User: What shape does this take?
Amino acid sequence: MTPSKTILTDDFGRKHNYLRISLLEKCNLRCTYCMPADGIALSPKASLMTADEIFALAQTFVENGVDKIRLTGGEPLLRKDFPEIVSKLSTLEISLSITTNGILIDRHIDILKQSNIKKINLSLDTLIASKFHSITLRNQFEKVIDNLHLLLNNNFQVKVNVVLMKGFNENEIIDFIKLTEFLPLSIRFIEFMPFAGNEWDRSKMVSQNEILSQVEESFSLDKIQKLEDEKHFTARTYKIKGFQGDFGIISSITNPFCDGCNRIRLTANGKIKNCLFSNFETDLLTPFRNGESITDLISESIKNKKKVRAGMVTVSEIDNPELHLGNRSMIAIGG
Ligand code: SAM
Ligand code: SF4
Assistant: This one.
């Protein structure tokens, strides 16, 4: 049984039972909103967590109340020892899931099933093949679509992550929602967020209100159903009545959801981050390798967590690049 107050409870009473582990900093796509145009300085291989270290660190978190782990990256399925990592993690009493760009799903589908992974978040920002290259800089559209169907045919619960950007894909919002008429998918529209090197500018972002306006213009109000949000939601969810799937909006910029935050992150080089927006990281891997206890470090990191977006409460603070330039690129954090 999880103790009522653990080292993972912060000063605002939020219990962090959800750990997102980044498996690597590399990727087989180059999404422009995620990977800086000049690439990133990769951590030396020796400073990345091995499969055994990932398991041991995850075990410490599980002993302290984590019951949900998501594997991310970079592209998690690119890691050669991915099968070993998921097999080990699947022995823990957790719900295990992954976030992937989908390219290597067919290669790993058996191990995903064997590891009892049921929920997969797949990133896909356009339904138009020729546009896929302009955002990812790679030609993998058909592969991703085939693997999306492979997952559905194998009864995985799939959420499709769509980062919306002005002038690129805001004209596909309704097409994505229409996909849910006959497919049991959850589409999740994500407001474009600022990270080092991604040239974020609020004018490029498509806001929650803009998304909802488009929905209300395309469907009659009595057909748009607001669904009950999950306890620790990131997406505010909706459904078009009669459609098989649903859709949600992750509005980290215009309507944050920090009150119910239960998420902590472990980067591929073994650093804990208490908030996606935070510039601060606490190294767990070095002390772990030195045989030292890491529980006090975890506790301190959680205690330092700010109430809202690493202390960036207002929109003007988000607009100030000085406040988030110290944060690593999304590809190196693990979304
Ligand atoms: N490679 C995997 C993938 O693309 O799903 C996992 C890692 S990726 C960093 C995780 C999620 O972060 C993806 O859904 C991606 O769209 C999202 N993401 C990356 N950069 C973002 C940004 N600047 N704003 C909002 N979401 C972002
Ligand atoms: Fe790679 Fe995912 Fe980032 Fe795209 S969003 S560059 S697929 S890590």
